[in-house]
Amino acid sequence: MKTVVHRGNTRGFADHGWLQSFHTFSFSGYYNPDRIHFGALRVLNDDTVKGGMGFGAHPHDNMEIVSIPLSGALEHKDNTGRHKIINQHDVQIMSAGTGIQHSEFNASRTEPVKFLQIWLFPRLKDIPPRYDQKTFDPAGRNNQLQVVVAPEESDATLFINQDAWFSLGKFDKGQSIAYASKKAGNGAYLFVLNGKVKVGEEILETRDAIGVTDYSTLQVSMLEDAEFLLMDVPMHV
Which fold is adopted by the domain 2-234? Predict the structure, then answer.
């Protein structure tokens, strides 16, 4: 088993006043040659946007973009005419494909919104742009993994144009899981949202992350009550 650890306090950070953004991987003004991507996982931004503020219309192409609100709500608009509100417990996916323009604003005028924005390199390029979102019952991740993104068409998950699976978990102290990769050759990237866990010999706390490759089963033990996002992604892109 091979591992790479990214501590929360070593991430890139940008403070734009209306936006505070932590970058796990190189992004915008933050560049670290050792943190370009983890396999297909290209961007993992941990953003807080002030009330009434947001990202104006901007383009993307040939990228799978997943947004996960942690608190508050996002207002999404794009040039296909979609206008959606993405709430806590929702997950949004956008296949930029041949090109799409969208904006993301805090849906509240007063309260901040906190969310993860995650980019993956796509499996197929130049597909028609696609957008989807679903609401996931948080009870479905109590002491178990709740798959929210998968490469198979399903009513239970969001489809992604990549051989990748995203799972959310919320576990009590003392619980443990043994995670087996969904596809041979994939790596696992675990991002701790809250709490403290042990993965192999590494102890991870809130906003720490670990990437694991060449493993058969990944053991995750909860040293405190903990929530995390586990991303199972191809390593060769």
Answer: Jelly Rolls (2.60.120)
